[in-house]
Task: structure prediction
Amino acid sequence: MDQKQGGVDTAGGHRAWILAALALVCIGLEIVVHLFFRTAIGYTHIFYILLVLSALWYYRKALLVAGGLVCAMVATSLVVGDLSWATAIRAAMFCIITWVVASISEERDRAKAELQVKKEEAEKRHYALVGYLSEATLRLKAPLETLRENLASMRRQIDLGVDTEDMKTMLSVQIAHLEQIIENFRELNQEIVEERDDIPQEFGEFLTR
Amino acid sequence: MPVDLSRLGQDKLFLVLSTAEKLRQNNIQIIKTLTDGGYKVVVITTNRPSGILKKIYAAEGIELSKVFFIDAITKYAIGRVPEGEPDTVFVNSPSNLTDLGIAITSALNATSGNKPCLLFDSISTMLIYIPSIAISKFIHFVASKLRLLDAPGIFVAVEKGIDPLLLTQLTTYVDDVIDMDAPSPVPGGDGEPQKA
Result:
């Protein structure tokens, strides 16, 4: 668990560094290309790498990055004096693309998390079923084998002319064993019926009768 | 066919696995080996009433003076305790682990000067009356008690009647596991007990 947590922290750290480096590149391009070379064409496509990665990793928080880039672009446009509809459309595209990618990424991860929860629930049910089958075998099948052998032994004893009182006692023991086995079966079913909501009431009553 | 309990001096606690068909015969073999070895055997029976076991042992030539019974089934099954049963303690029910524990402690203390040895017959039958978790704890309690008293103990169970988890737990409580019905690797040695 700690290792997993450590792994997530390391990945988060790497992501932050990658985004910081990309942000520096974008600001650098804004200053060098737009401010010094006075051209507003082409270089802004690089911005999308930063925006898409931010949206993938940090969902809608990436809109803050988009807002920052829009501010930087508008500020340089004001300095350069080329503020136009093209600048406004570019700024809107930054925000729209970021929002769309963030929404898709968020939805994908939410579905992934839901799937994981369902998978864990299915695994839990599977282990519960294995546990039930194992305990049922242990407390029903194995004792029945002992009982069968007891009865077989008693039959052999009859052939040898066993005392009637002893036979009655042994029969009482087998009856006691059987009564308990039936009770065990009912208890095991009771546990399952109480645990599962999807068993219809009629079947629940039948199983625990 | 003698039971190979030759390590009873070094190893103290054994889990003996037997098929259901040979359980009765193996029980007799173990008792015979132990009584011949000079042990006073404390038999905990949950499957056959002590009165019947006594007759079986006597018929097999086992010295009954060397056997003490803790009978957990007679009273439960027939509702009363037979009168005039020497060397026998009756417990209300196999599920009454408190009384069973007290009876075991008393019996071991009472026979402490006579080379006591405990025979638990059987774990498989106990499973009818108590869940596997409870039986694991109880066997651990009995095993600890035996180790404190430095007395040997043999726990009998039906082979293939115990799930892997319980078997692993039981194996950790004992020193050795003996499969009574495993085929012998020695030619012509069929039926010789083997270590599991």
Q: What stands out?
A: The CA atoms of residues 7 and 176 of chain B lie 9 Å apart.
